[in-house]
Amino acid sequence: MNFDQKYMQMALAEARKAYQRAEVPIGAVVVCDDRVVGRGFNLREQTQDPTSHAEIIALKEAAKEQASWRLEDCQLYVTLEPCPMCAGAILQSRIKRLVYAAADPKAGAVKSLYQLLGDDRFNHQVEVVSGVMEAEAAQLLKDFFRELR
């Protein structure tokens, strides 16, 4: 198992926590210097807060842990391609590298609908790796929505 798979497994574990709470199963972890400094999973239904996405929760925890909003030496692992809100938060936090599992053709703002993290008009760009453990993440989402219907 390589570095990216190790941390994506942790993000998938976070996604399973969301699944158990009847939340869309998306999980995220922030890693700095080979150490997890932030974790999150979707909590929109529980909190009734539209910003309670896995990435936002993980980034907030990481910023608190690092005592800085600048997460320049950190990587974010997330099970689904980030939406525009989360892509914006990734840019604002200066995350160095994003690794995500499954593409989101309906709301993805990294490669699917928009390419916000690579847009050179912003003052920060993010290295992006996609498709890490994609099948596992996609299956978790399919299972969740199948049960929901």
From TrEMBL:
Pfam families: MafB19-deam. It catalyses: adenosine(34) in tRNA + H2O + H(+) = inosine(34) in tRNA + NH4(+). Residues 2-121 form the CMP/dCMP-type deaminase domain. GO terms for biological process: tRNA wobble adenosine to inosine editing. Its cofactor is Zn(2+). One of its GO terms (molecular function) is zinc ion binding. Zn(2+) binds at residues 53, 83, 86. Binds 1 zinc ion per subunit. Keywords: Hydrolase, Metal-binding, tRNA processing, Zinc. The keyword Metal-binding applies. The keyword Lyase does not apply. It comes from the Bacteria. Its EC number is 3.5.4.33. The active site is at 55 (proton donor). Belongs to the cytidine and deoxycytidylate deaminase family. ADAT2 subfamily. Homodimer. Catalyzes the deamination of adenosine to inosine at the wobble position 34 of tRNA(Arg2). PANTHER family: CYTOSINE DEAMINASE FAMILY MEMBER, TRNA-SPECIFIC ADENOSINE DEAMINASE. This is tRNA-specific adenosine deaminase. It comes from Halanaerobium hydrogeniformans (Halanaerobium sp. (strain sapolanicus)).
